[in-house]
User: Fold this.
Amino acid sequence: MLARPEWTAFPPALAARPRPQLRPDLLSLLRLWLRRSADRRALAGLDARDLRDIGMTRADAQHEAAKPFWRS
Assistant:
């Protein structure tokens, strides 16, 4: 059986490498998806009074909340 090295940190060669940067458009897309997901979870949690205030029915809210995060 081979002994595994015990590292407490990354080797210097790996630690010195710059981290890859996400492209700004990809980062914006990820933020949009996260915002949609959070908004749809919040919408699903609204009661009838709150839905009435924003002009939606329970069916409208359920339909919107059921959409995947990548759909607008």
The radius of gyration is 22 Å.
